[in-house]
Design brief:
The protein is an all-alpha fold. Helix content is 73%, strand content 0%.
């Protein structure tokens, strides 16, 4: 859960030495923001319900007990994420994430639809990799563009956002030892994207899709994205939550459109990797 890291400002770009790494990264970042804002106009067309209604339908055999276990595991994840939660609940939160992910995999494997229909095994691997590459550029750019706009609005209102908007990334910036970098990278680029996408996209969106039907597919995407952003309350400042919601929309759209979890997992992992890389490569003030 290392979303929402460092947002370079125009002042930092201007003050960096010409030709320096920080300067060119900042220039590339702001160029990407402008390009993505223009490209976002095309994304508006993808919000039409007819676009997602043509996506593959996932039909798992869900009972009332399945829904209790599934949504109960999500509630357990939330229980330990809120500020001030005791240590026991924080540990239970991680258990809830594992429980939800494992339950979805087992349920898919035992159902008639199988793991391929649930998106756990790519139906078209080459297409999924191509979609992941495009989704990474678009998803990361759109998320950071949202963060920049929120940060600008907050600063104008007298509420400047922190330089590094995640507690683990702040630890990484303060003590970038090889052991810490390896541990955080493993957790953020491998473990967290896999588990979170299994729970918030795989389990939640599949559950909601079966409950609400194909005509309300965008409602399932929006609901899962909101829950995904909300579970980060306490881990990031409020400035980062709109960006995480936008990221969740992109990840949910990828899952519904392709029927595969692979693009969502890879884009999520890539987004976290970009955050880590920026914190390591660009020195703080």
């Amino acid at each position: 859960m290392l979303e929402t890291a460092f947002i370079p400002t125009l002042g930092q770009a201007a003050s960096a030495e010409a030709g320096g790494l920080a300067y060119w990264l900042s220039v590339a970042f702001w160029a990407g923001v402008g390009a993505v804002l223009l490209g976002a106009l095309g994304f508006v067309g993808a919000l039409r319900g007819s676009v997602l209604r043509r996506g593959p339908l996932r039909e798992l055999e869900l009972s009332a007990a399945d829904l209790v276990v599934g949504f109960g595991s999500v509630g357990l994840v939330y229980a330990g994420k809120w500020p001030g939660a005791p240590a026991g609940l924080q540990q239970a939160s991680s258990l809830g994430l594992l429980l939800g992910a494992g339950f979805f995999v087992v349920k898919a494997a035992l159902s008639e639809a199988g793991v391929r229909r649930a998106g756990l095994v790519p139906r078209r691997p080459v297409r999924d990799l191509w979609v992941s590459a495009v989704g990474l550029v678009f998803g990361v750019g759109l998320t950071f563009a949202t963060l920049v706009l929120v940060n600008a609005a907050a600063t104008a209102a007298g509420y400047p956002s922190p330089e590094v908007n995640h507690e683990l990334l702040q630890e990484l910036r303060e003590s970038p030892s090889a052991q810490r970098v390896l541990g955080i990278a493993l957790a953020a680029v491998v473990v967290a994207p896999l588990l979170e996408e299994l729970v918030f996209r795989g389990m939640l969106q599949t559950w909601l899709l079966q409950l609400w039907g194909r005509r309300r597919r965008w409602l399932t995407v929006v609901t899962a994205a909101a829950l995904f952003a909300g579970v980060h309350v306490g881990l990031v400042s409020w400035h980062g939550l709109p960006g995480l919601f936008v990221l969740g929309l992109v990840l949910g759209w990828l899952y519904e459109k392709t029927g595969s979890l692979l693009p969502a997992v890879l884009v999520h992992a890539g987004f976290n990797a970009v955050n880590i890389g920026y914190v390591l490569l660009v020195p703080g003030p």
